[in-house]
Write a structure and sequence with these properties.
Elements lengths: L3 H24 L5 H13 L3 E4 L6 H11 E2 L2 E5 L6 H5 L4 H7 L15 E5 L6 H13 L1 E4 L2 E4 L4 E6 L9 H5 L3 E4 L8 H17 L12 E2 H11 L5 H16 L6 H17 L22 H11 L14 H11 L9 H21 L4 H25 L1
Length: 393
């Protein structure tokens, strides 16, 4: 039987590994930590995200970056008023029609088979497209001819310049549980934006790209599904009372917050705890409610009410951690393995120790004892990995 302590340690390390991937995306964009965190929460909780903001705010580039860190089937598409359903869901399967006299779509490589989808200008779709998307988002099913097929969709990421005021679109819009307003970067971040943006432009002009080994390996679908399962095991009981108080206050102040939204919010509270490698939700996890607004203007009211409860709305990945937290990670990363670790597990350990060292130097520059311990563990992990690779060759 698996040791409960060892299992808990593995879960925390998996969560840290997922955070490492999110950090790698955030590092490539200026002022977009909040968006990265929200998309990460959506993936863990299997919910959908809507990014709202003007053109030129890197929404498309940022969401495309998630295909780089996840080993999943990804489907991006720009919708217009003239987009045909076949462009998203696949063309008619000619073979099935000719040989079997049966109408069906060939969905290979299309949205119904994607794990992660990004639809730019999502509200531009026709009613036929939006109705099919509703079933995909709600039930993870797709009508294909006379059959209803299961879909693999984990999360759908949508973007729009403005929220629609058409009541016909309200039901579809509400299926995006999470919302993020994406504006232009703050004035004090413009210099960083120019530096980062020019680096990306240089890669585009010279036809070069960042080497594959420059960042962490892709997070596998199997690993992601394991973390999604663990969200259900996070204990949210300790914050349920305060959460209920906040929901009652929101409704008293006229904020649109449906029963369905309140129930599903608990998934996000649990995902927030897991993203920080915790199995028990804390009051600060209620900050995710700042991204559950429905109508423009409600977001500021939600943030004010959270402030009344001394809850800060998260504005990013909250990377700065205490030295004690880093030491706990170090202890877990250097704990004896259950059995012989695989090469990928050893590589992951090297990556996590490297990231831990960066955290220690950036956030605790004077803690030389911690630096030395992490450096020693990192060197040992590299030696162990090399020895393992030599034995396999």
């Amino acid at each position: 039987m698996t040791d409960p302590a060892a299992r808990a340690r593995r879960i925390r390390m998996q969560a840290r590994a997922f955070r490492t991937r999110l950090d790698s995306v955030a590092d490539d964009f200026v002022g977009r930590d909040e968006v990265v965190r929200v998309v990460g929460l959506a993936l863990l909780s299997q919910e959908h995200v809507l990014l709202v903001g003007p053109p030129g705010t890197a929404k498309t580039s940022l969401l495309d970056s998630f295909a780089r860190i996840l080993d999943v089937r990804y489907f991006p598409y720009l919708l217009t008023r003239f987009t045909e359903p076949a462009e998203l869901f696949g063309p008619m399967d000619v073979h099935a029609f000719q040989e079997e006299r049966r109408f069906r779509l060939n969905t290979e490589g299309m949205l119904p088979q994607a794990h992660l989808a990004f639809l730019d200008e999502v509200f531009q779709g026709s009613s036929a497209i939006l109705n099919s998307l509703l079933m995909l988002m709600n039930e993870r099913r797709f009508h294909n001819g006379s059959l209803t097929e299961p879909a693999d969709l984990l999360s759908l990421l949508g973007s729009t310049n403005d929220l629609p005021d058409d009541p016909v679109l309200a039901g579809f819009s509400d299926r995006f549980l999470l919302r993020v307003a994406v504006g232009y970067v703050d004035p004090d971040q413009i210099d960083d934006l120019l530096i980062t943006g020019w680096r990306r432009e240089q890669h585009a002009m010279t036809g070069t790209s960042v080497p594959d080994d420059a960042g962490p390996a892709r997070f596998s679908l199997d690993e992601l599904r394991k973390l999604q399962t663990e969200v259900a095991h996070v204990d949210v009981a300790a914050v349920r009372g305060e959460f209920g108080d906040i929901v009652r206050t929101l409704r008293r102040e006229g904020v649109a917050f449906s029963d369905r939204r309140a129930v599903k919010a608990q998934r996000l509270i649990a995902a927030s705890a897991l993203l920080d490698a915790r199995a028990v939700a804390e009051t600060k996890d209620l900050g995710v409610l700042a991204h559950l607004w429905t109508r423009p203007g409600d977001d500021s009211t939600i943030r004010r009410i959270l402030g009344d409860h001394d809850i800060a709305a998260p504005d990013g990945l909250s990377r700065a951690r205490s030295a004690a937290a880093l030491r706990l990670d170090l202890t877990e990363l250097t704990a004896p393995d259950d059995g012989r670790p695989s090469r990928e597990q050893l590589r992951e350990r090297v990556r996590l120790l490297h990231r831990l060292g960066r955290e220690a130097h950036e956030d605790h520059p004077d803690d030389t004892e911690l630096h030395a311990r992490i450096d020693a563990a990192h060197t040992t992990a590299i030696d162990t990995l090399r020895h393992h690779e030599q034995q396999e060759s």
